[in-house]
Amino acid sequence: MDILNPSLLDKLRAHFAERFSATPAVREQHGHGESHHEAALPDAVIFAQSTEEVAEIVRLCAAHRVPVIPFGAGTSLEGHLAAVRGGISVDLSRMNQVLRVSEADLDCTVQPGVTREQLNQYLHDKGLFFPIDPGANASIGGMASTRASGTNAVRYGTMRENVLALTVVMPDGQVIHTGSRARKSSAGYDLTRLFVGAEGTLGIITEVTLRLYGIPETISAAVCSFESVEQAVDSAIMVVQLGIPVARMELMDRGLIRAVNAYSGLTLAEEETLAFEFHGSPAGVQGQIAMVQEIVREHQGKDFTWAQTQEERNKLWEARHKAYYAALAQRPGAKGWTSDVCVPVSELSGAIHHARELLAGCGAPAVILGHVGDGNFHVVFAVDPGNTQELEEIAAINKQMVRRAIAVGGTCTGEHGVGTGKAAYMREEHGEAVELMARIKRAIDPDNIMNPGKILPGN
Amino acid sequence: MDILNPSLLDKLRAHFAERFSATPAVREQHGHGESHHEAALPDAVIFAQSTEEVAEIVRLCAAHRVPVIPFGAGTSLEGHLAAVRGGISVDLSRMNQVLRVSEADLDCTVQPGVTREQLNQYLHDKGLFFPIDPGANASIGGMASTRASGTNAVRYGTMRENVLALTVVMPDGQVIHTGSRARKSSAGYDLTRLFVGAEGTLGIITEVTLRLYGIPETISAAVCSFESVEQAVDSAIMVVQLGIPVARMELMDRGLIRAVNAYSGLTLAEEETLAFEFHGSPAGVQGQIAMVQEIVREHQGKDFTWAQTQEERNKLWEARHKAYYAALAQRPGAKGWTSDVCVPVSELSGAIHHARELLAGCGAPAVILGHVGDGNFHVVFAVDPGNTQELEEIAAINKQMVRRAIAVGGTCTGEHGVGTGKAAYMREEHGEAVELMARIKRAIDPDNIMNPGKILPGN
After folding, report:
1. Where are the domains of chain A?
2. Chain pair A-B, CB pairs under 8 angstroms
3. Using a CB-CB distance cutoff of 8 angstroms, which residues of chain A are in contact with residue B102?
């Protein structure tokens, strides 16, 4: 608590009473996400209940130049939540109201603590859904802040395309509204897109307006096995190149299928696998399926195994969403280290081949999975957090994967964000544009109190 | 030429020789777009040929604090090109090379002076197309800078969704690259989206990487007549709400049909009209058509009139793209004044009804057209530029349309941009977020040399 002015803590404690906590357990819980990255504890945690409360916390912290770190569901994978310079963790999980839904306009406004599963449960009876689905049951505020995507992005886009408007508490406590409910606008700088992916370094998102979609008339899901990863990936690439509007197209390697079967009680064939979902009218879905089956056969894929019922479909995708936890469960006590490169689709086969070569010499269990329709894939390593040599080995593999991705026109992170974990690659990927990012950061947050130490190298 | 240091003009003239011009005719041509907005002539025009040349011009102008205004095809509708504080117009029309196309990744990189028609002619033999299509044959750089859209946006999105990466000359002459060729990324602030729609006020775009699409297997186009605009609009709203993935859905009112028939030699029924295009597999297109026909019949629409051949389709959409010119041709010597509001789709019917009431008392010829699937519509007024009373009358109508759009959650401009024409509405639409835009502008362009007087009120 050394950096904190005791009078600030006293003020916050007095104001927020039992919603203020500086106990070690609560601070520990808020100092990390779900990955191997080292925790760094905030000095205190406040459970906020409104935009005005968030603004008040930020105003007080700004007056004392104390860092503020927004916290949603705690499912970050790149160290976003570590209070690397201490400060106040603002827990937004109690701001979990769906504020409005418009069935007519296919949009809604939610508080940032609403989780993706909560939102979809809320929407289901209205015949609507929100497609962006990272593996974890993340909060919508966190998903906006990391520019998250997931299995449906190949068809529906990412948070970049699906956030219409935001309410944001700025670093001086001012509250602004970005965007509008119009589907498109040319009215000035795209502030919405500036905050989407800013990881809380420019302000704290306290309301999010999202695009929604009608639940498709027909949904079909199937898995398809291949002898080799290359065959699976080449099939996926051809589906993309032919513009077939698949809703989901997910690669799971043999090792992951084994882990998922064990963790989620499935009986999928333990082979290299593509899992598909098709959305549309009955005729449209039939047409997509026929085309994809033909492509798959050309690449020696086996016959589709269908998830026949909605229950079977839900089980399949829930298992896919829990792939990270399944991979870790293979090694008791392990932490996860997830790579997250994204490359132009034509480079995907080479990138995955390269990753598999790197993995051949790796001591830790590792599985490969990917949103292959986007050119995005992950290696999930189940690491022993106390084994420095193993951590270094994986760091070296990760670095080589990232370097190759950047070299072929890709990015160091497709969906997990930069946090502390990828900051070292920002200059390699963006060159001098990193200076522009830093200039924007300084202009908006001159005292660097908003989630410091994230995104920008040396920040 | 009073604001210019003569030594700067001498340097530029010496360096660019015959590609430098300070003749009145060339300056006049570069001081305005295609609308009623008053021209303001630059002190000189330079026809740039490379990113390095643009950087050199900007460096020299920055040293003398002289404004720089980028110029593409000159088709702006909101006064973007007016050199309101003098300076140098950088004409990018000779930077018109398609630098690369990847059929495998469905993307390309072009120079900013490439026009949308030029790009699509280039792509056609490869079986690809770029869908964003403002009415004019605009340049890709200009389209990126105004966050343009067009008739296909309901299906394919706008420039916001379809620009992957940019090369930008910054206000100090530095050249940066934003984004990558990956379809998605969470690697830091979304600089690409910051420059898309910035109207040249933050830098000059000198290369654009775009998403492309395969030409659909099946394309069908049809027009449908209605007795009333309300029936047409309500049909369009239902198509959107049911999520039918129409590629185009354009409203043209009776008056516009009359103008278009005369201008483009068509024989469309002179009624309130929706024009549709359907893209997809044969079965998918049939399914979409069946659903849309049913919706249209429920709203007393007449039978579809089909554009049977590709030639007929091209003629239909070319006529639609030239609607602005057709509307002006009704009144010899007229200039165009185009409103451009965009509202949530559920508010569209009310907004158009309101606009029609306002038009009832208007002296100038006016037609209504709209990208109704996006909630975006225009009134094109054919104004007598010398008639002050008429200009004031239209300004008052425009203001009421904008105010209503903002009040119902919409925006003052769906696709034309802010320029000088909408700057007065920025605070009403964005509130205090305008201050954030101004802060970003100051941080990036502290001397305000990049297209000053645009977007930000009082800038």
Report:
1. 6-91, 98-214, 218-325, 326-417, 422-459
2. 287
3. 344, 346
Q: Which of B240, B425, B433 sits opposite A177 (nearest CB)?
A: B433
Q: Residue A308 — φ and ψ, nearest 5°?
A: -75, -40
Nearest CA distance, A220 vs chain B (angstrom): 16
- Is B104 part of the contact surface with chain A (CB cutoff 8 Å)? yes
8 Å CB contact of A410 and B181 = yes
What's the CATH number for B6-91? 3.30.43.10
Q: Render each residue's pLDDT in chain A as its tens digit; 459 residues.
A: 445 677 899 999 999 999 999 999 999 999 999 999 999 999 999 999 999 999 999 999 999 999 999 999 999 999 999 999 999 999 999 999 999 999 999 999 999 999 999 999 999 999 999 999 999 999 999 999 999 999 999 999 999 999 999 999 999 999 999 999 999 999 999 999 999 999 999 999 999 999 999 999 999 999 999 999 999 999 999 999 898 999 999 999 999 999 999 999 999 999 999 999 999 988 889 989 999 999 999 999 999 999 989 999 999 999 999 999 999 999 999 999 999 999 999 999 999 999 999 999 899 999 999 999 999 999 999 999 999 999 999 999 999 999 999 999 999 999 999 999 999 999 999 999 999 999 999 999 999 999 999 999 887
Please give the CATH number for the structural domain made up of B331-422.
3.30.70.2740
Do the chains contact at B185 and A280, CB–CB below 8 Å? no
Instruction: Please indicate whether, in this complex, the C-beta atoms of B184 and A376 are within 8 angstroms of each other.
Output: yes
Instruction: Sort out which chain B residues have CB atoms less than 8 A from A241's CB and list them.
Output: 103-104, 106, 214
Coil, helix or strand at residue B36? coil
- Which of B75, B111, B110, B109 lies closest to B92, judged by CA? B111
Query: Looking at the domain covering A98-214, what would its CATH class be?
Result: alpha beta
Contact A147 B190 (CB under 8 A): yes
> Does the domain spanning B218-319 belong to CATH 3.20.20.190?
no
Which residues in chain B are closer than 8 Å to A451, comparing Cβ atoms?
A: none
Q: Which CATH architecture describes the domain A326-417? A: 2-Layer Sandwich (3.30)
Residues 329-388 of B with CB under 8 A from A: 340, 342-346, 374-376
CA–CA dist B220, B285 (Å, integer)? 8
Q: What is the pTM of this model?
A: 0.97
- Which residues between 386 and 415 in chain A have a beta carbon less than 8 angstroms from any beta carbon of chain B? 405-406, 409-415
Strand ranges for B56-211 from DSSP E: 68-71, 88-91, 98-102, 107-110, 128-129, 163-169, 175-179, 204-211
Phi, psi of A193 (to 5 degrees): -70, -25
Tell me how long chain B is.
459
Task: Count the neighbouring beta carbons within 10 Å of the beta carbon of residue A330.
Answer: 18
CATH number of A218-325: 3.30.70.2190
Residue B174 near chain A (CB below 8 Å):
yes
**Residues in chain B closer than 8 A to A104 (CB atoms):** 237, 241, 344-346
What does the alpha-carbon distance between residue B50 and residue B113 come to, in Å, rounded to a whole number? 11
Hey, do A6-91 and A98-214 end up sharing a CATH topology, with the first three levels equal? no
Residue in chain B closest to A143 (alpha carbons) equals: B186
Residues from chain B that touch A424, judged by Cβ atoms under 8 A, are none
Question: What sections of A18-66 are H helices per DSSP?
Answer: 24-29, 51-63
Tell me the CA distances in angstroms from B131 to B109, B151, B159, B179, B343, one per residue in order. Answer: 15, 8, 10, 21, 22
